[in-house]
TrEMBL record:
One of its GO terms (molecular function) is cyclin-dependent protein serine/threonine kinase regulator activity. One of its GO terms (biological process) is regulation of transcription by RNA polymerase II. It comes from Choanephora cucurbitarum. SMART domains: CYCLIN. Residues 108-194 form the Cyclin-like domain. The lineage of its organism: Eukaryota, Fungi, Fungi incertae sedis, Mucoromycota, Mucoromycotina. This is Cyclin-L1. The gene is ccnl1.
Length: 215
């Protein structure tokens, strides 16, 4: 018998005022640095020819870590280049995460949901939904929403793009099949779509430990 472990999600308190924001980092800068960090992980994974599951898990743990630690204390590039301190860095991450490093990803759920909806043969929707799941890794939705909610968000966006209507009759709404709240999956979808309308200005991001700015 297999037991699926639930992903630990960020609390309302952690979302309202993150540790980084308490350290003086603006909400906009934190969002950009999270985005950049996830991109660095994805790029490194591609260079190392790692499977997508490994890259996705690393990106989720990255997002989770910075709800427990400050970007001012742990700079992205600083940690990224500390090859000789890999073990020490790993222990820092494990301690901050409380040694909880399991990650349930929504990819299989998304495929199963498409099958239930009779859309598993619709290649364009499958491809778009898969891409939305990948893009979502550059946001915080994997630590603020359940995998089922994220899967529904990706499917909804893909169907909108392909002009495919899903059941929405009262009491027979498609998302009820998966025990998901429409407000929640639409919120996750909005976070994904925000990526496409907000350009990441990498040239002006502080790519070092922020506390050393004045030194």
């Amino acid at each position: 018998m297999s037991v699926a472990l639930k992903n630990p999600l960020a609390s309302l308190e952690q979302l309202e005022v993150t540790i980084s924001r308490r350290d003086g980092i603006s909400e906009e800068l934190e969002e950009d640095l999270r985005h950049l960090g996830a991109e660095l992980i994805q790029s490194a994974g591609i260079l190392l020819k790692l499977p997508q599951v490994a890259m996705a898990t690393a990106q989720v743990l990255f997002q989770r870590f910075f709800y427990m630690a400050s970007l001012k204390e742990f700079g992205i590039v600083k940690a990224y280049t500390m090859k000789d301190m890999a073990i020490a860095a790993e222990m820092q991450i494990l301690r901050k995460l409380g040694f909880i490093v399991h990650v349930q990803l929504p990819y299989n759920l998304m495929i199963n949901y498409l099958r239930i909806l009779g859309l598993e043969e619709h290649r364009a929707i499958t491809r778009r939904a898969w891409n939305y799941l990948n893009d979502g890794l550059r946001t915080t939705i994997y630590v603020t929403h359940e995998p089922s909610t994220i899967a529904c968000a990706a499917i909804w966006l893909a169907c909108l793009e392909e002009s495919v209507k899903l059941p929405t009759d009262l009491g027979k709404e498609w998302w009820l099949l998966f025990d998901v709240d429409s407000v929640h999956f639409k919120n996750a979808a909005a976070h994904i779509k925000r990526l496409y309308y907000r350009k990441l200005d990498k040239a002006n991001l502080p790519l070092y430990k922020l506390s050393n700015e004045q030194s």
